[in-house]
Design goal:
The protein is globular and about 50 Å long. The chain folds into 2 domains: about 15-115, Urease, subunit C, domain 1; about 120-150. It contains 4 helices and 4 strands, in the order ααβαβββα. Helices cover about 40% and strands about 10% of the residues. By secondary structure, it is an alpha+beta fold. Strands 1-2-3-4 form a 4-stranded antiparallel β-sheet, with no helix packed on it. A hairpin with a 2-residue loop joins strand 3 (about 105-110) and strand 4. The protein has helices spanning about 15-30, 40-50, 85-90, 120-140; strands at about 70, 100-105, 105-110, 115. Helix 1 (about 15-30) packs across helix 2 and helix 1 (about 15-30) packs across helix 3.
Amino acid sequence: MVKVGLGTDAERMDFFSQMRATGFASKQAFGAGNAATAAELFHAATITSADILRRPDLGRLEPGRTADLVVVDAMKAHLQPIRDPIRSLVWYASSADIDTVIIGGKPVVRNGRLEGVDESTVVRKGRDVTWRLWEESKRRGHFPAEAEPASL
Protein backbone atom coordinates (compact mmCIF):
# COMPACT_ATOMS: atom_id res chain seq x y z
CA MET A 1 0.00 0.00 0.00
CA VAL A 2 1.28 3.44 -0.94
CA LYS A 3 0.38 6.43 1.21
CA VAL A 4 -0.48 9.55 -0.74
CA GLY A 5 -0.39 12.93 0.93
CA LEU A 6 -1.13 16.38 -0.43
CA GLY A 7 0.91 19.53 -0.30
CA THR A 8 1.64 22.62 -2.30
CA ASP A 9 4.59 24.82 -3.07
CA ALA A 10 2.78 26.83 -5.70
CA GLU A 11 2.70 30.60 -5.96
CA ARG A 12 -0.79 30.98 -4.51
CA MET A 13 -0.58 28.06 -2.04
CA ASP A 14 -4.34 27.50 -2.11
CA PHE A 15 -4.69 24.13 -0.46
CA PHE A 16 -8.38 23.88 -1.33
CA SER A 17 -7.51 24.21 -5.02
CA GLN A 18 -4.84 21.55 -4.58
CA MET A 19 -7.34 19.09 -3.10
CA ARG A 20 -9.75 19.82 -5.96
CA ALA A 21 -7.08 19.44 -8.65
CA THR A 22 -5.94 16.16 -7.14
CA GLY A 23 -9.53 14.94 -7.09
CA PHE A 24 -10.12 15.86 -10.72
CA ALA A 25 -6.83 14.28 -11.81
CA SER A 26 -7.67 11.08 -9.93
CA LYS A 27 -11.14 10.87 -11.46
CA GLN A 28 -9.65 11.36 -14.92
CA ALA A 29 -6.81 8.88 -14.36
CA PHE A 30 -9.15 6.16 -13.12
CA GLY A 31 -12.00 7.10 -15.46
CA ALA A 32 -14.37 6.92 -12.54
CA GLY A 33 -16.50 9.61 -10.93
CA ASN A 34 -16.27 7.87 -7.58
CA ALA A 35 -12.45 7.92 -7.50
CA ALA A 36 -10.90 10.26 -4.92
CA THR A 37 -13.90 11.09 -2.78
CA ALA A 38 -13.94 14.29 -0.77
CA ALA A 39 -13.39 12.28 2.41
CA GLU A 40 -10.36 10.52 0.88
CA LEU A 41 -8.89 13.81 -0.34
CA PHE A 42 -9.41 15.50 3.02
CA HIS A 43 -7.85 12.52 4.82
CA ALA A 44 -4.86 12.64 2.45
CA ALA A 45 -4.48 16.38 3.07
CA THR A 46 -4.58 16.05 6.85
CA ILE A 47 -3.90 12.73 8.56
CA THR A 48 -2.00 10.94 5.80
CA SER A 49 0.19 13.97 5.04
CA ALA A 50 1.06 14.31 8.73
CA ASP A 51 1.89 10.59 8.86
CA ILE A 52 4.13 10.84 5.77
CA LEU A 53 5.98 13.75 7.36
CA ARG A 54 6.33 11.64 10.53
CA ARG A 55 4.52 14.35 12.45
CA PRO A 56 2.02 12.59 14.72
CA ASP A 57 1.26 15.96 16.34
CA LEU A 58 -0.33 17.23 13.11
CA GLY A 59 -3.41 16.40 11.06
CA ARG A 60 -5.79 15.53 13.89
CA LEU A 61 -7.94 17.42 16.37
CA GLU A 62 -7.16 15.51 19.56
CA PRO A 63 -5.78 16.30 23.01
CA GLY A 64 -1.99 16.57 22.94
CA ARG A 65 -1.81 17.50 19.26
CA THR A 66 -0.51 20.77 17.85
CA ALA A 67 -3.27 23.35 18.10
CA ASP A 68 -3.29 24.49 14.46
CA LEU A 69 -6.72 25.12 13.04
CA VAL A 70 -8.25 26.75 9.96
CA VAL A 71 -11.84 27.99 10.30
CA VAL A 72 -13.83 28.47 7.10
CA ASP A 73 -16.79 30.84 6.89
CA ALA A 74 -19.37 28.25 5.83
CA MET A 75 -22.11 30.85 5.44
CA LYS A 76 -20.78 32.05 2.08
CA ALA A 77 -23.36 31.68 -0.68
CA HIS A 78 -21.22 29.43 -2.91
CA LEU A 79 -20.91 26.90 -0.08
CA GLN A 80 -24.67 26.59 0.40
CA PRO A 81 -26.50 24.39 1.03
CA ILE A 82 -24.12 22.28 3.09
CA ARG A 83 -25.19 18.69 3.42
CA ASP A 84 -21.70 17.24 3.73
CA PRO A 85 -19.19 19.71 5.26
CA ILE A 86 -16.10 17.81 4.05
CA ARG A 87 -17.49 17.63 0.51
CA SER A 88 -18.26 21.36 0.56
CA LEU A 89 -14.74 22.16 1.78
CA VAL A 90 -12.99 20.02 -0.80
CA TRP A 91 -15.10 20.78 -3.87
CA TYR A 92 -16.31 24.36 -3.27
CA ALA A 93 -14.20 26.23 -0.70
CA SER A 94 -11.22 28.46 -1.45
CA SER A 95 -8.61 30.26 0.60
CA ALA A 96 -10.79 33.38 0.36
CA ASP A 97 -13.31 31.59 2.59
CA ILE A 98 -10.88 31.34 5.51
CA ASP A 99 -12.09 33.37 8.48
CA THR A 100 -9.70 32.34 11.27
CA VAL A 101 -6.34 30.60 11.51
CA ILE A 102 -4.94 29.43 14.83
CA ILE A 103 -1.32 28.27 15.01
CA GLY A 104 0.00 26.73 18.21
CA GLY A 105 -3.13 27.88 19.97
CA LYS A 106 -2.59 31.53 18.94
CA PRO A 107 -4.95 33.26 16.48
CA VAL A 108 -2.96 34.67 13.55
CA VAL A 109 -5.88 35.41 11.22
CA ARG A 110 -9.22 36.83 12.38
CA ASN A 111 -12.10 37.82 10.15
CA GLY A 112 -9.92 36.96 7.15
CA ARG A 113 -7.24 39.48 8.15
CA LEU A 114 -3.69 38.73 9.32
CA GLU A 115 -3.18 39.84 12.92
CA GLY A 116 -0.47 42.40 13.73
CA VAL A 117 0.63 42.95 10.14
CA ASP A 118 -0.01 45.79 7.73
CA GLU A 119 -1.23 43.67 4.83
CA SER A 120 -1.07 46.48 2.30
CA THR A 121 2.65 46.91 3.02
CA VAL A 122 3.28 43.16 2.73
CA VAL A 123 1.35 43.00 -0.56
CA ARG A 124 3.16 46.04 -1.98
CA LYS A 125 6.62 44.72 -1.02
CA GLY A 126 5.80 41.23 -2.31
CA ARG A 127 4.54 42.63 -5.60
CA ASP A 128 7.63 44.80 -6.04
CA VAL A 129 10.02 41.92 -5.34
CA THR A 130 8.09 39.63 -7.69
CA TRP A 131 8.31 42.16 -10.53
CA ARG A 132 12.08 42.51 -9.96
CA LEU A 133 12.47 38.72 -10.06
CA TRP A 134 10.45 38.51 -13.27
CA GLU A 135 12.57 41.24 -14.87
CA GLU A 136 15.83 39.55 -13.86
CA SER A 137 14.57 36.18 -15.09
CA LYS A 138 13.52 37.77 -18.37
CA ARG A 139 16.92 39.50 -18.67
CA ARG A 140 18.63 36.13 -18.25
CA GLY A 141 16.40 34.57 -20.91
CA HIS A 142 14.64 32.12 -18.62
CA PHE A 143 11.12 32.83 -19.87
CA PRO A 144 9.63 32.75 -23.35
CA ALA A 145 7.47 35.67 -24.49
CA GLU A 146 4.22 33.85 -23.65
CA ALA A 147 5.31 33.70 -19.99
CA GLU A 148 5.51 37.49 -19.85
CA PRO A 149 3.32 38.69 -16.98
CA ALA A 150 0.71 41.31 -17.76
CA SER A 151 1.77 44.82 -16.74
CA LEU A 152 -0.18 46.79 -14.18
